[in-house]
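Example with several molecule types.
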Amino acid sequence: AQKVTQAQTEISVVEKEDVTLDCVYETRDTTYYLFWYKQPPSGELVFLIRRNSFDEQNEISGRYSWNFQKSTSSFNFTITASQVVDSAVYFCALRGAFSAGKSTFGDGTTLTVKP
Amino acid sequence: DGGITQSPKYLFRKEGQNVTLSCEQNLNHDAMYWYRQDPGQGLRLIYYSQIVNDFQKGDIAEGYSVSREKKESFPLTVTSAQKNPTAFYLCASGPGTEQFFGPGTRLTVL
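Resulting structure tokens for the full complex:
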């Protein structure tokens, strides 16, 4: 069985602070994909990143960066110099390479960035 | 514009009634999915379809039904057998590993 744990239910920061959202996963698959999505108040999920299990290279995209550590089964997401527009619910998700599209989502972390 | 559309945005239903949620995509994706989201929780998979005229149950299929007669369309029917249907429903489609989501339908049972 697959499991995704986002232990931080809610995080509140002041604008310009850096913030890290944690994601820990469990899977028996040797090949899998990890995802982060952003859900603003409108409700639609916005795809942020996909990481393959065989690629542990960290990635940076503007103010966003992702740290994938297979040894600790973690895929953490850092926002640098947070902005009010970053306020949203963020979901981490896991999908086995041969799971026919079935993704397992964490319960989400609600990030509030205060001005 | 290419994308995924869901209608209606808000839906109210009386207990005992069936209701159908629409999901259409013009991205030419083979796979389509339906998820349910409850407050404070992640998404749970209801049904998914990898090809026209074929679909599989997800983790919480009881009380729901789907059809996939066209590549572009994957409607979800919430039947009276679903005991707690009030939730936010998200449709997604994807070419393979990625999934792209529609804006969602918020269903409330009165």
